[in-house]
Structure formats: C-alpha cells, structure tokens
Design a protein that fits this description.
Elements lengths: L1 E2 L32 E2 L10 E5 L5 E3 L9 E3 L2 E2 L23 H5 E5 L2 H9 L9 E3 L10 H4 L1 H11 L4 E5 L8 H9 L3 E6 L5 H7 L6 H13 L4 E8 L8 H11 L3 E6 L6 H12 L4 H11 L18 H16 L28 H10 L5
Amino acid sequence: MLMPRSLRALKGRGAVANVQGRYEVDVRETFDDGWLREEEEPRVWRTQVTDETAKSILSRNQSPDIPFGVSLNPYRGCEHGCIYCFARPSHSYLGLSPGLDFESKLYAKVNAADLLRSELSKPGYAVEPIALGVNTDAYQPIERELKLTRRVLEVLQECRHPVGLITKSALIERDIDILAPMAEKRLAAASITLTTLDPKIARTLEPRAAAPERRLRAIRTLTEAGIPVGVSVAPIIPFVTEPEIEKVIEAAFDAGAIQASYVVLRLPWEVNPLFQQWLEAHFPDRAQRVMNRVREIHGGKDYDASFATRMGGQGLWADLIRQRVEKAIQRCGMAGRGSRFRQLDCTQFRRPLVVPPVGAKAKRAEAVGQMSLF
C-alpha cells in the first residue's frame, strides 16, 4: 500500500509534520517527489535538549475559566507529543515549529529552582497555590534525568508553599516522599490527565505519555500515599475519545480519584492543522465527521477562544457532553467536591532561608569570587 509522505505518522511522535510557525517571515513548502511504501522505515526524529537560563519562572494569568492564577513550567516543549496540546503554538515564539519541533526540540530551565527561591524571598510576594507543569508536562521523560521538577518541589516544601500538579506521567510517584508530607499539611494536590482507556488510541494521541493503565495505577499509588488526586478527562474528542467519557471517570474513581473535570477539544492557532493532519493519518474514515462535530461545539468555527465557552463549548452537543460528565460524576459520588487546588492552605508559608544570586547578581558574585591575574 502507498501513502503520501506528508500524512505518514512517525513512530513515537504525535505530529505528522513540522508546520510553519505563524511568526516566521519566509514561507516554505514541502515538495513530495514520490511515494513512500508502508514497509519502508520512516525518518527518525531524535530528541534534542537545550539548557536555558530563564529570566523569570512564574507565569500569571487572570483567565476566569482557569482555577489557578500562578503557574511554573520547568520545560519548554514536551516529549509526550500529545497532538492536541494547547501549548504547541508557544514554540512559534522561539522560531521553531509547533509540530515535530515542539516534541523533539526541548528547553530545560536549569535555574528554575534558584529563580523560584528568589521570587519567594521578595518582600511583596503574595502567596497563592502554584500550578506546576501546566503549559508542558513537568514529568515528561527528560525529568527522570534532569530532576528540575523535583528541585522546584524541594523549594516549595522548604517554604511550606502550596502546589498543585497535573501530569500524564507515572514519574510523579518518584516524588511521593515530598508530596505526601506536604499533602498531610494541605500543601499539595495532584491531577492525572486521562484521555482514553484504549491503549491503541493513546499510542497515537499521546505517544510518549504513560499508558492509560499505568496512569490509573499512579492514581492508586498517590491516593494510598495520602495525596488527594483528581482526574482530568481532557480533551474530549468527538467520535474518538468521547464514547469513553463514563468509563474513564468510573475507572479513575475506582483507582481512588476524588474529583473529576473535563475540557472539550481546543484547536488554537497551529494546533488546528496539526490535529487535522493527525486525523487524516490515523482516522481517515471519520476525519470529516469529527471536524463537523468540533465546529458544532465551537459555534460553527474550528475553535472559539472566548473565555465563556472555550473549555466546555456551546450548543446541543456541548450540553450533552456536560450532562454525561455530570451524571457520571454523580454516580461515582464525586459531585460537590470541588477543586482540591482551591482548598490548599496558603497560611503556612515561610520565606526561604537561603537565596542564591540570580541574573546580573550571579555574574557579579562570580566575578568577585575569582580575580584576574593579568
């Protein structure tokens, strides 16, 4: 069987192609000079990690539909490769593609913990829970070696600062020794994203994230350690993951989740063409049907960014999804529990005892520490 090169999926990658970022001045077009046979080995797209010395580490937002106002992301880009990731367009700011570049050209903010210490030591710092790993997953594969997330958690534990984590990775279990004592003081809560229970769909939708069964086991392990865990059923993709809504919520509840939330599929900026390419590559038989339903949910558009509707959608089909989620939550006895993130305690905070110099101060300290002999 023959297929166009442009729609051939790469093993272990979510994006089918490297779409051009919206800020690039020069326009490039890929020219396919032939056909690739199915049995031929596709090009290998290797992961590259670049150290980044960040200038700031806390991001703030005032979005009324997001349950947190402050977030921290130790990494840019994410090797999990989730095709629907709303953070993909952020790679355009780096002059890179939101497609394959986003999941293979990663940046590690090696000074994240020091920047956090500096921020928490400021006299005017106002305490509110920090959401860790929102834009990109703080427990993506490179965290196993770099341990930037763990260093950040050590600072938060030392300062008794509340934190909420959201991840698709079982690597979060590694940090139970930090999270469990914090949770006991109402300083930590976790949320596991569970999009589907079908491992075949998960392998293409979220190629390098933990398998669905492994995420359920992580929910169970965290719960047994005394850490409150919620489940995020996100995104709900019509005719792909949408048929599983009830089963996903029930499985998460059985594993120990105490709260559930959901988000319908969002296709901002470059995520839109990337997702449609993915549909054509993996679900060509229903691609048009999926997009028709997505448009119905978003008021006739591929995506509507309005705060009031972007997360849950609007119209008949959006209402049906909402009702299905609510009824599943009620059957599991999770109704009315609310977000554990908002219930974290902000009154125990204490400023860091040691604050290393950062930025220009660090350079001056380094210059003073070693004098030139010439």
